[in-house]
């Protein structure tokens, strides 16, 4: 195993495994990844089939409950989520108190953390019906919270949900519509966003998901655990990468649009520059999600008439990387985030909204993983060991004598 050291301590052997490169922390039936072959399956179903044929709420049900729902079950689940999309007035006021230019990920984490203060009846982690209520509340409110994050940045009020519309369709209406105006969504955009949410819905024990499990292992409630996951996702090496990819593409464009020159900087590791949206801890082959997103990016940008130089720069970077020894030898391929920012931008989202959109998609995965963890009799409170390398015992020195 790479990077693993086994050490003998007073209480037996300790494995030193920075970044958990080789340490499995749980058994799971939810998501299967084969990083060498570029395979991703949710509950056994290949990701490309789900992206092509399913919908976000159906995939949420599948991840959380383990099986594809019957039509009756799916209708009931969707209707229940829809019915809960309205947020309490006090909650809206709370979200409205953050500065307009606050980073939406900070507001999102705070909002998820604050949610159960309005629903104290949804907190018992060991009662199945209560956990199902919390599940529905999180899926429903996350949609409203995300749309309001966008509107707040533009100084616009929260819109009321329309229970007659679908999850993604109404999310887009609540995000982009003028108050009291009819709003028709473009089916190509609804379909593309639905696909993106499906592709982000789970990815086994990544940084944010293991955070959710770790926090939940102390029997902290589902909301507190997911708020921690949102914070973990905010980092540029994780969910924040989609925002960084667009910044990188814009930077290349503003510096004269020369991808080859930028790639030389990456390879020479100048100022620690990395090709954002490339590389993955598990995929040492093409990320199967990236292939689906790339196709979608082409279609959406063409349909919306928003195809611009940034997509060409991205494609050129990928072309260079796929033929360059630096990237080939390190098995660096585009990950899911390489093309998502371009789609979100074409849809009308600011870069700061890209990671909240990732979080909206990841909610079902976090919920499913937390529920699996809490119901697994083998779960123990997460408590890693360490290898102490500090001072040995020494005597306190009075401040006057230091
Ligand atoms: N650009 C250039 N070089 C890279 C990149 C990159 N994007 N990623 C890895 N490398 C190089 C490293 O410099 C290192 O080279 P070295 O052996 O000469 O030192 C080698 O590849 C291995 O890299 P590690 O950082 O050890 O790989 P690790 O598995 O720890 O990191 C990570 C994975 C964080 C995703 C990394 O590839 C990265 O920083 N990518 C860019 C950020 C990104 O796109 N993150 C999104 C991840 S997917 C997601 O969260 C949905």
TrEMBL record:
<dbReference type="InterPro" id="IPR019810">
    <property type="entry name" value="Citrate_synthase_AS"/>
</dbReference>
<dbReference type="InterPro" id="IPR036969">
    <property type="entry name" value="Citrate_synthase_sf"/>
</dbReference>
<dbReference type="InterPro" id="IPR016142">
    <property type="entry name" value="Citrate_synth-like_lrg_a-sub"/>
</dbReference>
<dbReference type="GO" id="GO:0036440">
    <property type="term" value="F:citrate synthase activity"/>
</dbReference>
<comment type="pathway">
    <text>Carbohydrate metabolism; tricarboxylic acid cycle; isocitrate from oxaloacetate: step 1/2.</text>
</comment>
<keyword id="KW-0816">Tricarboxylic acid cycle</keyword>
<dbReference type="InterPro" id="IPR024176">
    <property type="entry name" value="Citrate_synthase_bac-typ"/>
</dbReference>
<keyword id="KW-0808">Transferase</keyword>
<dbReference type="InterPro" id="IPR016143">
    <property type="entry name" value="Citrate_synth-like_sm_a-sub"/>
</dbReference>
<dbReference type="Pfam" id="PF00285">
    <property type="entry name" value="Citrate_synt"/>
</dbReference>
<comment type="similarity">
    <text>Belongs to the citrate synthase family.</text>
</comment>
<keyword id="KW-0012">Acyltransferase</keyword>
<protein>
    <recommendedName>
        <fullName>Citrate synthase</fullName>
    </recommendedName>
</protein>
<dbReference type="InterPro" id="IPR002020">
    <property type="entry name" value="Citrate_synthase"/>
</dbReference>
<dbReference type="InterPro" id="IPR010953">
    <property type="entry name" value="Citrate_synthase_typ-I"/>
</dbReference>
């Amino acid at each position: 195993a790479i990077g693993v050291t086994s050490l003998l301590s007073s209480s037996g052997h300790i494995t030193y495994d920075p970044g958990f490169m080789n340490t499995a922390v749980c058994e799971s039936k939810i998501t299967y990844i084969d990083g060498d072959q570029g395979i991703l399956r949710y509950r056994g179903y290949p990701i490309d089939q789900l992206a092509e044929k399913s919908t976000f709420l159906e995939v949420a049900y599948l991840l959380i409950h383990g099986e594809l729902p019957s039509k009756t079950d799916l209708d009931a689940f969707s209707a229940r989520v829809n019915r809960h999309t309205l947020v309490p007035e006090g909650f809206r006021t709370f979200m409205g108190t953050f500065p307009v230019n606050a980073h939406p990920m900070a507001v999102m984490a705070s909002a998820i953390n604050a949610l159960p203060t309005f629903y104290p009846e949804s907190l018992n982690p060991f009662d199945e019906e209560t956990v199902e209520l919390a599940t529905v509340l999180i899926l429903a409110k996350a949609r409203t919270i995300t749309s309001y994050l966008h509107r707040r940045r533009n100084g616009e009020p929260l819109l009321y949900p329309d229970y007659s519309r679908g999850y993604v369709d109404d999310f887009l209406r609540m995000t982009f519509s003028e108050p009291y105006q009819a709003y028709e969504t473009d089916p190509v955009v609804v379909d593309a966003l639905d696909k993106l949410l499906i592709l982000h819905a789970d990815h086994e024990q990544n940084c944010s998901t293991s955070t959710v499990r770790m926090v939940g292992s102390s029997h902290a409630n589902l909301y507190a655990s997911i708020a921690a996951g949102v914070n973990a996702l905010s980092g540029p090496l994780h969910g924040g990468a989609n925002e960084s990819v667009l910044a990188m593409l814009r930077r290349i464009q503003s510096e004269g649009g020369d991808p080859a020159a930028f790639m030389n900087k990456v390879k020479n590791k100048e100022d620690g520059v990395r090709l954002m949206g490339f590389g993955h801890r598990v995929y040492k082959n093409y990320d199967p999600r990236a292939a689906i997103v790339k196709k979608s990016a082409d279609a959406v940008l063409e349909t919306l008439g928003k195809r611009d130089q940034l997509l060409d720069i991205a494609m050129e970077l990928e072309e260079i990387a796929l033929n360059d020894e630096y990237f080939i030898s390190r098995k660096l391929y585009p990950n899911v985030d390489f093309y998502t920012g371009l789609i979100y931008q074409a849809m009308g989202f600011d870069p700061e909204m890209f990671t909240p959109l990732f979080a909206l998609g990841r909610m079902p995965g976090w919920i499913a993983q937390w529920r699996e963890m809490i119901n697994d009799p083998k779960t123990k409170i997460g408590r890693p060991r360490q290898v102490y390398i500090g001072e040995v015992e020494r005597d306190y020195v009075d401040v006057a004598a230091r």
